[in-house]
Amino acid sequence: MRQILFLIYDLERGGPELRIVDLARELEEKIGIHICSMSNKVALLDDVARHGAHVTIKTLRKPWLEWSTVKDIRDYAQINLIEAINVFDLKGLIATYFPMIGVCRNKQFPKVVYHCVSEISNEGFKGRTIVGMINKCDAVICNSFFSANQAEANGVSKRLIRVIHNGVDTTKFSKQRILGDAVRLQYDIPAESFTIGTVANFRHQKNYPFLIAAFAQILEEVPVARLLCVGGGPDIDECRTIAAQAGLLDKVIFTGYVNDTLPYLNTMDVFCLCSLSEGLPNAVMQAMACELPVVVTRVGGCPELIKDTHEGFLFEPNEMETFVRLVSGLAEDPALRTTLGGGARKKIAREFSLDKMVSAYKDLFLSI
User: Fold this and answer.
1) d(CA 42, CA 186)
2) Helix, strand, or coil (residue 12)
């Protein structure tokens, strides 16, 4: 059995971290999964351990200075016969790169896979150095063709790049409206309401102030509308203040962090994501699997998920008039919502299933 180590910044509830949970569950009988968290933030520890993954914590802030911890990671890889290390950021890259060329010099050192979860830039000495380190890896995973093209344009070798789209467990994420009943009861959402929803961390990239301002305009056309904002993050208090100043606190619901988004998705009539930038957003894919029509900004890999007017609608970032028109139109047309939602579910099942993602990861890890 091939042993793989995921060296990741933390084990909180984010896209890459949840992907590791899926891989641990689906690959446990085929590939030995090891996870090293470089921080003590490990909310998903029980989830990955339940599926047989071996988890270790090596707190690491500055790998170029903390050589003893870097050595601990190297030793863990050697003791456990790790054959490939999947890293997700610069810190993880440095922690594997320096032992590989400067400390270990062992021809049996594990293969290194770099997983792009943020934008790569070759600007300046630092950027060129990072790209040079990435090109020393054995493979580079991008979760969209947009990300792959961007990486190549910034100097990452095309021969290293593998596009593996995120995948959704369509047996879990599906239309089950009864699951939304408890959410409606908890937040006093009337049965006749038109619920606009999103699932996203409260940070600048997600553009919540735009969504709240747009919702105020939608209310003028659709008085029964409610806005359900699922997630937490550094900007949540600021967004609550924005909603309060607009007199919308009785119409806008802030849930904070939740462990399971499925009941909230099944409360929504339409899913929106107004981000300024994205990779391939899991939240949109999960909403599509739940047969929700989606209205999403035309950024990052979103056009790979959504063919405009087929599974939902795409709009340019901060195009207020267009967004308001699209969402208000969906409020008035239940048949269109059903058609788009059905198309969305079929698109996910056909092209972005969990099985397809897991198979691609398995092929990569067994081939390098």
Assistant:
1) 28
2) coil
CA distances from 138 to 24, 126, 156 (A): 22, 21, 12
| Torsion over CA: 200, 202, 203, 208 (sign) | positive
Amino acid at 134: I
Cα separations (Å) of 94 from 42, 62, 88? 21, 9, 11
Instruction: Report yes or no: 314 and 278 within 8 Å, Cβ to Cβ.
Output: no
Query: Please, are residues 117 and 77 in contact by the beta-carbon 8 Å criterion?
Result: no
- pTM listed for this prediction: 0.91
DSSP string of 41-94, one letter each residue:
--TTHHHHHHTT-EEEE---S-TTT-HHHHHHHHHHHHHTT--EEEE-SHHHHH
Condensed to tens digits (0 to 9), the pLDDT of residues 309-352 reads 999 999 999 999 999 999 999 999 999 999 999 999 999 999 99
Written as six digits, the tokens of 19 are: 């992907």
pLDDT tens for 169-203 read 999 999 999 999 999 999 999 999 999 999 999 99
CA–CA separation, 113 and 130 (whole Å)? 14
Name residue 9's amino acid: Y
Q: Which domains can be identified in the chain, with CATH numbers?
A: 2-167+353-367 (3.40.50.2000), 177-351 (3.40.50.2000)
Strand pairing class (31-37; 2-8): parallel
> What tokens were used for 142?
């991008």
- Strand 294-297 and strand 312-315: pairing? parallel
Please choose, from the candidates 135, 139, 117, the residue with its C-alpha nearest in 3D space to the C-alpha of residue 127.
135
- Please state, in angstroms and rounded to a whole number, the distance separating the CA atoms of residues 235 and 204: 8
